[in-house]
């Protein structure tokens, strides 16, 4: 359509026009109730005015999670457990690195904001009803939503551009500058972000496991490189990575119970050296228990915008590297059309997010070919 769209300046861009938590949720505090058993919907809650209950993770307690009544809210998280705290409580006290505490004697004031409170922060009107059984589902719906007023202002700007009135839209130049800076930052520091995300996972794993059993992080060159990359990230990026890792850690421990199994032997966590990827070993973190000759690996990936080939590439013979037996002709025939598709999309400048139906076109057939080949090896043993 050859329209050079400019992001509109928000109506509350100026500080004097910004609304506060006092403006939008003050009247809800007296009717707020905790969620039901196991954080199910509480039938006594009036208009979704119920809050998630439960313990706070070490990651959550690493930062202050309270904004004052006369401030704007934090970004709304798509999680009940990670939801910001209500402004009735005093701000948390920092007592050390990544360690904040509730004010002593005021612990009873700390609770998560309710579903209706965060819905108001996102701009949803009170007559917009959220239907759910699990309260976390409601928090997820609201946190993943585009703020209502933001969507409205962008839609109005788009309408004006389509009607040929784009010149009358007041452009937010700061957004344009920030976008250019961010694109440059992402393109030049993608490797650092990947290493920093691996570091976040290592720290999260260690904190979860060291409370259960003897655990040690192996010191090597990859640990040094990843720690350096972590130090280059700003606080917001670090927090995002830690929240992401923390959200998945319980699932990982459930899938691999030997990690958390209480025993006298030592469990080690080690960053894989980059050179191993050439041989088809895609594990970023290797977890071992030598006494029982057990190990498992995690492949840690942060988000990419561009098309990326899997380490199961069109030319890497993992059979030869892993089993000292070349992959079969059937395997190569199965994966060839998959990588031909990826090459074509990459040549067209397609972003990974723009490829439709990736599960059916890429992930499932590629993994099925891999599984079939591994099973074929097992049948020969």
List the helices and strands and how they pair.
Blueprint: H1 21-25, E1 33-34, E2 50-51, E3 93-96, E4 99-101, H2 115-121, H3 135-144, H4 148-162, H5 173-188, H6 190-210, E5 215-217, H7 221-232, H8 235-255, H9 257-260, E6 267-271, E7 285-289, E8 294-298, H10 318-323, H11 329-347, H12 358-380
Parallel strand pairs: 1-2, 5-6
Antiparallel strand pairs: 3-4, 6-7, 7-8
Helix pairs in contact: 6-7, 6-8, 11-12
Descriptive account of the structure:
The chain has 381 residues and is an alpha/beta fold. It is 42% helix and 8% strand. It has helices at residues 21-25, 115-121, 135-144, 148-162, 173-188, 190-210, 221-232, 235-255, 257-260, 318-323, 329-347, 358-380, and strands at residues 33-34, 50-51, 93-96, 99-101, 215-217, 267-271, 285-289, 294-298. The strands form 3 sheets. Strands 5-6-7-8 form a 4-stranded mixed sheet, with helices on one face. A two-stranded parallel sheet has the order 1-2. It starts with 20 loop residues before the first helix and ends with a helix. Mean pLDDT is 87; it is low at 305-310.
Number of helical segments with 4 or more residues = 12
Compressed to H and E, one letter per element, the order equals HEEEEHHHHHEHHHEEEHHH
| Beta-strand content | 5-15%
Walk across the major sheet and give the strand order: 5-6-7-8
Mean pLDDT: 87
Helical coverage, percent range: 40-55%
- Rg result: 25 Å
- The SS-based structural class is alpha/beta
- Distance N to C terminus: 60 Å
The residue ranges in which pLDDT falls below 50 over 5 or more consecutive positions are: 305-310
Count of DSSP E strands? 8
Instruction: State the shape.
Output: globular
**Could you describe the largest sheet, including whether it forms a barrel?**
4 strands, mixed
